[in-house]
């Protein structure tokens, strides 16, 4: 798969828009729109615990998408149906069934994008990697860059022929609240919050149960990872500077978290792009932690 930024230790995790346009008809290429729409929870009482509702972006996909792209429904197909928390990573069985139905074989090459932030594409990237599928990349700049460059779009649906996806799970890709609790105060483990600074400090009106952050965690907001105009990832030097501010080089393990494991996947993706392979996502994130009064938090 073509690469772009040579200074990234893992440039193969990104593809550029020009490469994708030139390779859209490649037989083993699978392109997917992973968009999810995030809206305020209409239930005002429940909003105190779960501030947002996560809706499939299938309607916007049906109106316009990259030609030959399929659609991956994260809330409907790639969230654990047995969990009370939204967006939790699905079981191996559910994941394999979904990827097989999407037409992803073990020999496929996958490119992911979303129409808003890259968080949703990064979430699917992280899950694919967690289940042992490595030949996957994000479209650098996503839909924003694609349309800004006036590249072709389509409203024709695409259903790839079903294939057999084989999982090779990597349990270390995700951690649970017990792992995070044990990490607090451990100088060798760095806990990174990927949410905007106002939510991190507790000054924002948005809260996942309680205001603030997991105790002993630091902040690298997902919005600091990409160019606000193009949506493309910042240079390797700029990204390293952002993460150096929280001393990632001193950590033997890095745990990322956010509201529901989505922005955390973008931070985790970016750390992988920079060559850090000691990263895990706290899947329950603040939707779990913030609503459990027994778990320590900080503000300010």
Question: Could you characterize what this model shows?
Answer:
Strand 12 (253-257), helix 10 (263-273) and strand 13 (279-282) form a beta-alpha-beta unit. The longest helix is centred in the middle third of the chain and has 12 residues, at 119-130. Strands 1-7-6-2-5 form a 5-stranded parallel β-sheet. Strands 8-13-12-9-11 form a 5-stranded parallel β-sheet. A two-stranded antiparallel sheet has the order 3-4. The protein folds into 2 domains: 11-170, Oxidized Rhodanese, domain 1, CATH 3.40.250.10; 172-298, Oxidized Rhodanese, domain 1. The protein has helices at residues 17-23, 58-63, 74-77, 92-102, 119-130, 142-148, 177-183, 197-201, 236-244, 263-273, 285-289, and strands spanning 14-15, 29-33, 36-40, 52-56, 69-71, 109-113, 136-139, 174-175, 189-193, 213-214, 218-219, 253-257, 279-282, 297-298. It is an alpha/beta fold and 300 residues long.
Task: Write a concise synopsis of the structure shown.
The protein has 300 residues and is of the alpha/beta class. The protein is built from 11 helices and 14 strands. The strands form 4 sheets. A 5-stranded parallel beta sheet has the order 1-7-6-2-5. Strands 8-13-12-9-11 form a 5-stranded parallel beta sheet.
The CATH architecture term of the largest domain is 3-Layer(aba) Sandwich
The tally of structural domains comes to 2
Backbone shape: globular
Radius of gyration: 18 Å
Indicate the CATH class of the largest domain. Alpha Beta
Structural class from helices and strands? alpha/beta
Level of helix content? 25-40%
């Amino acid at each position: 798969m073509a690469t772009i930024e040579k200074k990234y230790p893992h440039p193969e995790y990104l593809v550029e828009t020009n490469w994708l346009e030139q390779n859209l008809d490649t037989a083993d290429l699978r392109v997917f729109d992973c968009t999810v729409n995030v809206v305020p929870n209409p239930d005002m009482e429940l909003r105190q615990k779960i501030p947002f509702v996560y809706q499939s972006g299938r309607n916007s996909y049906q109106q316009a998408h990259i030609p030959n792209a399929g659609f991956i429904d994260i809330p409907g197909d790639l969230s654990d149906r047995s969990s009370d928390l939204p967006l939790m990573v699905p079981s191996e069985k559910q994941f394999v069934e979904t990827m097989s139905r999407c037409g992803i074989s073990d020999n496929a090459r996958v490119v992911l994008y979303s129409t808003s932030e890259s968080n949703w594409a990064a979430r699917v990237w992280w899950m694919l990697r967690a289940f042992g599928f490595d030949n996957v990349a994000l479209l650098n700049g996503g839909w924003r860059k694609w349309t800004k460059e006036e590249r072709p779009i389509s409203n024709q649906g695409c259903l790839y022929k079903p294939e057999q996806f084989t999982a090779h799970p990597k349990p270390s890709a995700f951690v649970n609240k017990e792992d995070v609790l044990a990490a607090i105060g451990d100088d060798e483990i760095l806990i990174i919050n990927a949410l905007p600074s106002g939510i991190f400090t507790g000054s924002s009106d948005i809260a996942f149960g309680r205001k603030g952050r997991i105790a002993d965690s630091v902040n690298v907001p997902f919005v600091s990872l990409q160019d606000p105009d193009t949506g493309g990832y910042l240079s390797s030097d700029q990204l390293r500077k952002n993460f150096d501010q929280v001393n990632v080089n001193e950590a033997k393990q890095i745990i990322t978290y956010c509201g529901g494991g989505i922005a955390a996947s973008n931070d985790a993706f970016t750390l992988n792009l920079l060559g850090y392979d000691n990263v895990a996502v706290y899947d329950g994130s603040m939707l779990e932690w913030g609503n459990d009064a027994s778990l320590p938090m900080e503000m300010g």
